[in-house]
UniProtKB/TrEMBL annotation:
Post-translational modification: Binds 2 heme c groups covalently per subunit.
Subcellular compartments: Cell membrane
The organism of origin for this protein: Microbacterium oleivorans
Transmembrane feature ranges: 244-263
Protein's name in the database: Cytochrome bc1 complex cytochrome c subunit
Keyword Cell membrane applies: yes
Gene Ontology CC: one annotated term: plasma membrane
Length: 266
C-alpha cells in the first residue's frame, strides 16, 4: 500500500522541526549575548570602581574645560582664569551641572551633571594641584548638629535678603537670581559660602566663622522637614504672594458675589 506522506518517508523534514531548530538557535544566540553583556558590565563596574588619578583629572579638564579656561587654567576670552579657585569651587560648579557652561547668559543655570562624581573629584584634584584654593571642610561641619536657632538668626541676617527667609530663592537684577536652597546638599551650602559662586559674596572666616557656617547649614538641613503651621505656604514667598492670593481669590470672590446678588435682584 502506498504511503500517504511520501515526502516525509523520503527524508523531508517536518515544518515543525524547522521552527524548533530556529527557536533553539535564537535561544542559544540570546543566551550567549546575555552572558557576554553581563561579563562586559562586570568589567565596566570594576573599571568604574577604580580610583581616577590627578593625571586622569588633567586629561578630563583638557578635553572638556580647556576651551574656555585654557590648558593651564590661565583663562580665555570665553572663560575666567581658575588660579586660586581651588577644588571646592570646581566640585561645586561641575557637580551642580553649572559647568560646563550651557550658554553665555546673566547666570549659569543648574542642569543635569555630565560627569560621574569620581571624574569630578579627579578634575578638582588636578586644579587644586596646579592652583591651590579652598578645599573640603571637616566632616563635622556638614553633620547638621550645629546650633539651629543661631543658624536661623545668621541666615536671616546674611542670606534671607536674596534667598528668601524660607530658602525658596528669589529674583535679583538683570536676569540674575538666587537659587532655592531646599534641595542643596550640605557640602554645596558650605562651598557657596566659601567660594561665592555667581552673584553670591564670599563669606570668609572673618565674616562667618566655620562654626557659624555649620550652624547655618544645620538650620537649612532642618528646613525641608518643617511643617507650615499657618496652612498653605504659598511658596513661602512672603507678603507678595499672600497679597496676590487675597486679591485674586478674596476680592475676586466678593466681586462674584456682588454680581450674583445684582443678577438675582434684577
Amino acid at each position: 500500500m502506498a504511503s500517504k506522506n511520501p515526502r516525509r518517508n523520503g527524508g523531508r523534514r517536518s515544518k515543525w522541526a524547522a521552527a524548533a531548530l530556529i527557536g533553539i538557535g535564537l535561544l542559544v544566540t540570546g543566551g550567549g549575548y546575555a552572558g557576554a553583556t553581563a561579563a562586559m558590565a562586570a568589567g565596566d563596574t570594576t573599571q568604574t570602581a577604580s580610583t581616577l588619578t590627578v593625571e586622569d583629572g588633567k586629561k578630563l579638564f583638557q578635553a572638556n574645560c580647556a576651551t574656555c579656561h585654557g590648558l593651564n587654567l590661565e583663562g580665555t576670552n570665553d572663560g575666567p582664569s581658575l588660579y586660586g579657585v581651588g577644588e571646592l569651587s570646581v566640585e561645586f560648579q561641575v557637580a551642580t551641572g553649572r559647568m560646563p557652561l550651557q550658554m553665555q547668559g546673566p547666570q549659569a543655570p543648574q542642569k543635569p551633571v555630565q560627569f560621574t562624581q569620581e571624574q569630578i573629584e579627579a578634575i578638582a584634584a588636578w586644579v587644586q594641584s596646579e592652583a591651590p584654593g579652598p578645599t573640603y571642610p571637616e566632616s563635622e561641619v556638614l553633620d547638621g548638629e550645629g546650633d539651629v536657632s543661631h543658624g536661623a538668626e545668621l541666615f536671616r541676617i546674611n542670606c534671607a535678603m536674596c534667598h528668601n527667609v524660607a530658602g525658596a530663592g528669589g529674583a535679583l537684577t538683570e536676569g540674575k537670581y538666587a537659587p532655592p536652597l531646599t534641595t542643596t546638599s550640605p557640602l554645596h551650602m558650605y562651598a557657596a559660602m566659601v567660594t561665592g559662586p555667581q552673584n553670591m559674596p564670599v563669606f570668609n572666616d572673618m565674616t562667618l566663622t566655620t562654626e557659624e557656617k555649620r550652624d547655618i547649614i544645620s538650620y537649612l538641613m532642618l528646613r525641608p522637614t518643617e511643617n507650615s503651621p499657618g496652612g498653605l505656604s504659598l511658596g513661602s514667598l512672603g507678603p507678595v504672594s499672600e497679597g496676590l492670593f487675597i486679591w485674586i481669590f478674596g476680592i475676586g470672590g466678593l466681586v462674584a458675589i456682588t454680581v450674583w446678588i445684582t443678577a438675582k435682584s434684577n
